[in-house]
Amino acid sequence: MTTVNKKEIEKFSKLAKDWWNPNGKFKPLHLFNPARINFIKEKLITHFKRDPNSKKPLDKLKILDIGCGGGLLCEPLCRLGANMTGIDASSANIEVAKLHSKNMQLNINYIQCPPEKLNLNNEFDVILNMEVIEHVSNTNLFIKNCSKLIKKNGVMFVATINKNLKSYLFAIIGAEYVLRWLPIGTHDWNKFLTPQDLEILANSNSFSVLETAGMKFNVFTKKWSKTHDCSVNFISTFIKN
Predict the structure, then answer these.
(1) Half-sphere exposure of residue 232: CA atoms within 13 angstroms, side-chain side
(2) CB neighbours of 73 closer than 8 A, spacing ≥ 6?
(3) What is the model's pTM?
(4) What burial class does residue 226 get, using C-beta atoms within 10 Å of its C-beta: 0-12 exposed, 13-18 middle, 19+ buried?
């Protein structure tokens, strides 16, 4: 059994050279990144009782970024002191990530593999599943493997898109066909999960939900921010039991 969806890997591999272009195909992620990083940082500072005034508040935390792409999350979190490992099933993505981190003189461990092939049980303090679960072939196997890889009391973040009419209109029709923020075919609405579906999946694999927060985009300021509205984009934070 595998979590790899070959069509999804091929799709993102073709875009790999564009990962670090802030005005390219991944512009939406570049805009999303500051909000994602602040959310992750604040949650980890609170959970692991770190000094919020430290320049490296995530010092020595072992973090795994699954579906790391070109390393857009790995690099800023590495600068905050985290011991970063990034995995991706696409060799093209990993090549881009390795080259960019080398140029930035950052020590990040990048590995081309899906989570089920990573033989590091109970290794990580934190797992990031950011905008990836809607692209895997077997969501239960995916979360099950996350459960194997994370330490007890570790934190798992899952950012994805809700499954309802509004998300179809905004995330697919609006973002892909009208505004052309994303290439057409980036998302399959049938693979979206509601926060409730995700929580059931996580609970069955030894995780408890800590919080589910919505993320909204302001078209005027071009910035993302946290909100109580989880109807389209949301991030769920889980603790490993």
Answers:
(1) 17
(2) 33, 36, 37, 40, 65, 86, 128, 130
(3) 0.92
(4) middle
pLDDT of res. 25: 83
The two beta strands, 109-112 and 223-227, are: unpaired
Write down the domain spans for the chain: 6-240
Sign for the pseudo-dihedral over CA of 79, 83, 88, 94: positive
The CA distances from residue 2 to 12, 43, 56, 122, 135, in Å, are 18, 30, 36, 20, 13
Ordered alpha helix ranges (H), the chain = 6-13, 27-47, 74-79, 91-103, 139-149, 165-167, 195-203
Rg (CA), the chain: 17
Instruction: Let me know if domain 6-240 sits in CATH 3.40.50.150.
Output: yes
For the stretch 54-108, pLDDT in tens is 999 999 999 999 999 999 999 999 999 999 999 999 999 999 999 999 999 999 9
pLDDT digits (tens, 9 = 90+) for 186-197: 778 888 899 999
Using DSSP, state whether 101 is helix, strand or coil: helix
